[in-house]
Design goal:
Elements lengths: L3 E2 L3 H11 L5 H19 L5 E7 L4 E7 L4 E7 L6 H7 L4 E2 L1 E6 L6 E7 L8 E5 L2 E2 L3 H12 L4 E5 L2 E2 L1 H10 L4 E4 L1 E2 L2 E2 L5 E2 L5 H6 L3
Parallel strand pairs: 1-12, 4-5, 4-6, 4-8, 8-10, 9-11, 10-12, 11-13
Antiparallel strand pairs: 2-3, 6-7, 14-15
Helix pairs in contact: 1-2, 2-3
The structure holds uracil.
Length: about 210
Amino acid sequence: MQVKIIDHPLIQHKLSLIRDIRTGTKEFRELLEEISMLMAFELTRNMPLEETQIETPLTTCTCKMLSGKKIGVVPILRAGLGMVNGILKLIPAAKVGHIGVYRDHETLKPVEYYCKLPKDVADRELIVIDPMLATGGSSVAAIDMLKARGARHIKLMCLVAAPEGVNMVNDHHPDVEVYVAAVDSHLNEHGYIVPGLGDAGDRIFGTK
Ligand code: URA
């Protein structure tokens, strides 16, 4: 199982709060945004820098700035939306694409229903986001959709994963690095991650 667990103490603390059944919609959203921002900090650790001349009030010096790598953030609808703003706080110039997939009840296969991406998707470093990496079906389908449209550099960022989901993404897309705050025990018979945090979409949007 190839996965990077971001175990910063602040993330782990906030993750425990977000798991708690007593955490309401407002706090859930705020925590998800904060965790997403902290995770994005780690994901962007190796972004390339270039040297540039800066004039300070005292002198001119050689400083470092990001070397213009273009980032794209791609939430998987709908729960992925809850992670967008946290990432944009750190990378405000990132473009945002959206992908919608649902699971057909009969075939159990993911079906694409929405895809709107930045035009230059092939040239961007893409961060696909979805709080819950459960079976891995939606993530694999989303990454398939991105690659079919030319994307070449993709990372997947989730809050909580089941081992089954990580393995599924690893098997189908070994080039995609998977970042999570935790890998939980297993999936239950309804496809929920255990212990998990319940239905992330319902908890973000208050639709339970
Ligand atoms: N999606 C969720 O929102 N929660 C899970 O536990 C699994 C899939």
